[in-house]
Amino acid sequence: MWSRFSNPAKFEEMARIAGPISLGLFIVTALIGLGGGLFYSPQDYLQGEAVRMMYVHVPAAWMAMGAYSFIAVMSLVAFVWRHTLADIAARSAALPGAVFTALALFTGAVWGKPTWGAWWVWDARLTSMLILLFTYFGYMAIWQSVPEQVRAARFARILALVGFINIPIIKFSVEWWNSLHQPASILRADGPTIHPTMLLPLFAMIIAYTALFTWLVFLEMRTSLLRQRIEKHSIRAPSRPVNISVGDE
């Protein structure tokens, strides 16, 4: 099965179908999630209306970590199996992942002001999320600044794998250190602690963010493959001499 998706032609065939499906799923689930979160779910008894920021913030934070985990896995695959398509997938996920991380930090600040009384605190999770954003920037900078693509891919893979150390730090920071963030309330051994009227719109938004990420990655990968084909064709195309004939005056 892996050989099917590592072949650029077969991947593009699959992406032409999966891409629009992902976009459609994003639109439907985003409407359900936002509609349910804004108009159907109740206020929180402590946070009031500010809790509605959860439907934008929490999925963004999850996707920030999920996108980077995807980059790390693709980088490992590229190291082990030398599949260039894995490098393309990892590179294509970097910008969406950085945007999700920035969105999580911004909405966290907006949510934190009425809840904690401050826009920013050097909380363990906030600090590790900020480090994640800088890691995304560093990863993208490598691809842009190193002219030789083979070297750029090698350096980017190393950074992606080393930076993955930060993902479990983000996840377990609320348990390892004193944190203003509450402990896990969804992925728990004894089940979620969020009421279903809040949990269902939140799950819809998580699906929406995942579908959006999938569509963006497929779109960028297809664009990168098309760009590679154009560059190879321009290199291989023989230059034709230009004949200039001057007529008799």
Write the topology of this structure.
Layout: H1 2-6, H2 8-40, H3 54-81, H4 84-116, H5 124-145, H6 149-163, H7 166-176, H8 196-236
Overview of this protein structure:
- The protein has 249 residues and is mainly alpha-helical.
- It is 76% helix and 0% strand.
- It has helices at residues 2-6, 8-40, 54-81, 84-116, 124-145, 149-163, 166-176, 196-236.
- α2 (8-40) packs antiparallel against α8 and α4 (84-116) runs antiparallel to α8 (196-236).
- The longest helix is centred in the C-terminal third of the chain and has 41 residues, at 196-236.
- Residues 244-249 have low confidence and may be disordered.
- Biggest sheet record: none
> What is the radius of gyration?
23 Å
Structural class per helix/strand content?
mainly alpha
Mean pLDDT: 86
Encode the helix/strand succession as letters.
HHHHHHHH
**Level of helix content?**
over 70%
Strand content is under 5%
Regions with pLDDT < 50 over 5+ consecutive residues? 244-249
Our measurement of the CA-to-CA distance between the termini, rounded to an integer number of angstroms, reads: 70 Å
- Give the beta-strand count: 0
Supply the number of helical segments: 8
What sort of overall outline do the alpha carbons produce when their principal axes are compared?
Answer: globular
